[in-house]
Amino acid sequence: MWKAIKINTPVIYMGLTWGASELVLGYFLHMLKAPLTGSLLMPVGIICMMSVYMKTGSRRAMVLTSVIAATMKLLTILIVPVSSFYLVVNPVVAILLEGAVLVFPITLLRKRLFNKMTYNMLLNFASISIGIFFYKICFLSFQILLKGETGAPALGMLSISDNFSFLITQTLISAFLVICYLILYVKITVSPVIKKTFN
After folding, report:
1. pLDDT value of position 123
2. 3-state secondary structure of 136
């Protein structure tokens, strides 16, 4: 029983942290009309998933973390007008897709996090960037489908320049922020005992 609680606690904590960041930080960034809002929120979810995986070693735990975060975001449907349902559906689906698509890239990070740091951080940057890019392709596809079925606004119908920013520029920014976190994690917070665990 206690073992199960130890495994589930990081999932619950990080899921709630991720969900709260989407609710609070996401709300203020959108209210302020901050540029590149998505590229700032994306790393939060990835870092929450990484933290869960490093503590549990479970891919399922990462997916469950995204489900908890998405459930929190889904609660906003109680205060959003029916005509603006997509303001809830889009971020909920985005969180779930992030949880599903980023599982594999995050799994790769753990295996090479502490050896040949400079070289592997470049590989980590590449794998995270590819993962985010693929997630965004999936999300754009969903939005195009949603627009076709309901007429809701879709990112997939933005201009080529806007889509380039969404797919490339914001992806690289998000991946860079994740790598910055990883470097700090390795340099500052990880003890030699934990390093041996991951080697």
Report:
1. 84
2. helix
